[in-house]
Amino acid sequence: MKFALSCIAIVFVSCRLVAGETLKDIEFARVDGHSLKLDLYLPDQKDTKPPLVVYIHGGGWRGGSKEKCEIKWLAEHGFAVASISYRLTDKAIFPAQIHDCKGAVRWLRAHAEKYGFRKDRVAVTGSSAGGHLAALLGTTGGVEKLEGTVGGNIDQSSRVDSIIDFYGATDFIQRIKNQPHKTIKEGSIVNLLLGGPADQKLELAKLASASFHVTPDDPPLLIFHGANDNKVLPGQSERIRDEYVEAGLPVTLHILEKAGHGGAVFYSGESKRKIISFLEERLMFDPLFDGETLSGWHTQSEPGIHGTGGNWGVTEKGILFGEQDPPGSGNGGLLLTDEKFDNFEIVLSLRPDWGPDSGIFLRANDRGEGWQVYVDHHDNGNVGHVRLETKVHSCPFRPFAVSRLNEQQPALKSVADTRTKDWPEGVYEETCSAEEFLAAWNPDGWNRMKIRCAGEGAFPVIETWINDVKICKLDTAKTTHPKLDREKAKTVMGQSGRIGFQVHKGKGWPDGARVFWKDIRIRRLD
């Protein structure tokens, strides 16, 4: 389609003029004479397009308003926020509500250029009734009965890239059993939503329940629920969490121990930090592993410290794995990115099969030499701290060690590393304690790790987190570690290098032991 030059100029200026502004009462659809509107909260940035977060308000589907947008402060952190309205139960029964929400997402994508946000990075979130609709919207991409035609823009997708559910219902069949006063009783909120008692509308109740729609292609899910919530029981969030786990999908459920149904605690303090971290990871990071092949990766081209390459592959569930080649032989190696990186943040999920000696390498060369983040909880191992690993010079920055007791008792213990007795002040800028690490790390399941590597020259600042717990911050240019020889390190290390996953050499690995990695994402830093 052709546009006049003047029209292009008007759209360009419009995008710049609305940056940092709040735009109220924009109509996105009109249904049976009822106007559906949304509010836009735009970040104060003009050079880049922000990702979009769609917020759905609560109120038991019969009240509430887009005016109460609990997460509009996300605009201060680089996100565009759209707070949308939908028909309440005095206007229409289900599935009208989800049709309206999906219509809003399609409209927003169709108008992304006009308002200056990205259409390819969209999250949905909501509170209570809005949490129910957010979870349902996120898990029903392509479900024709729930798509509707509200607002048109049928050429646009209503699928989203991530979901945040604040204490929403996800299984009305379960609620029939444990909350009949909410689902069956005349005048109750679910009765009004479905147009009658839920126990007499079981198919509609299932259609309206996100837990019955979870499939392996659904987006990552973050859930917050109060332990003392008696309006929507915590079991509703546990129900969809379990479905996500069964499907092998990324999901995190935070139960707030002293919280009930709603309140500032869900949107401030530690919860706020987790919301921002989740959305940054899902909307501002790019995939580094396609979940199907080893495209973009290669084993080391030269023999290195840890062997000749190891054996790497992808499971049927899209999980990257590494093992010795052949298993138990003692021959390890590294899988390296084809591309080189200098300043970046990387996030990934990892699960060692046996506490094997392995790691993540940063700014590595083709021999597999580089800055290493430990992923190692066998005898005298560590996870999350740092080591310089080269043929000409190695230096462990390990303040404590962790060990499995034995294969029959897989609990971890920790001990101080004897080498730390010679450390002066200032080796690390920050480091967690052994007790804090043990509380954060899951030795028998998946763990989420984040690594930040940034700085000029051969000596970056490296920061690590495990399951949202800060493990360490090491400034390799300023550290006082007495064993670090920077002159030797500079002969090998540089400003940029490859990211690598390691399978350690050595006979200690049991036959068949593997390390697993998935959901690997990266963000370049300026």
The number of helical elements comes to 13
The 3D shape can be described as elongated
> How many strand units?
26
Overall pLDDT metric: 91
Q: How much helix, percentage-wise, in residues? A: 10-25%
Termini distance? Answer: 35 Å
Main beta sheet, described?
9 strands, antiparallel
Strand content: 25-35%
Work out the radius of gyration. Answer: 25 Å
Structural class: alpha+beta
Low-confidence stretches: 1-17
Q: How do the strands and helices of this protein lay out in sequence?
A:
Elements lengths: L4 H13 L4 E10 L2 E8 L10 E5 L23 E5 L11 H15 L1 H4 L6 E6 L1 H11 L4 H4 L14 E5 L5 H7 L1 H4 L5 H6 L7 H6 L13 E6 L8 H13 L3 E6 L12 H16 L1 E2 L9 E3 L11 E4 L5 E4 L9 E5 L6 E9 L5 E7 L5 E7 L5 E8 L4 E4 L2 E5 L7 E5 L13 E2 L2 H7 L6 E8 L6 E6 L2 E7 L10 H5 L7 E6 L11 E10 L2
Parallel strand pairs: 3-4, 3-5, 5-6, 6-7, 7-8
Antiparallel strand pairs: 1-2, 2-4, 9-26, 10-13, 11-12, 12-26, 13-25, 14-22, 14-26, 15-16, 15-25, 16-17, 17-18, 19-20, 21-24, 22-23, 23-24
How would you sum up this structure, described in words?
The chain starts with a helix and ends with a strand. The strands form four sheets. Strands 9, 11, 12, 14, 21, 22, 23, 24 and 26 form a nine-stranded antiparallel beta sheet that branches. It has helices at 5-17, 96-110, 112-115, 129-139, 144-147, 172-178, 180-183, 189-194, 202-207, 235-247, 269-284, 434-440, 486-490; strands spanning 22-31, 34-41, 52-56, 80-84, 122-127, 162-166, 221-226, 251-256, 286-287, 297-299, 311-314, 320-323, 333-337, 344-352, 358-364, 370-376, 382-389, 394-397, 400-404, 412-416, 430-431, 447-454, 461-466, 469-475, 498-503, 515-524. The chain is elongated. The protein contains 13 helices and 26 strands. α2 crosses α4. The protein is of the alpha+beta class. 21% of the residues lie in helices and 29% in strands.
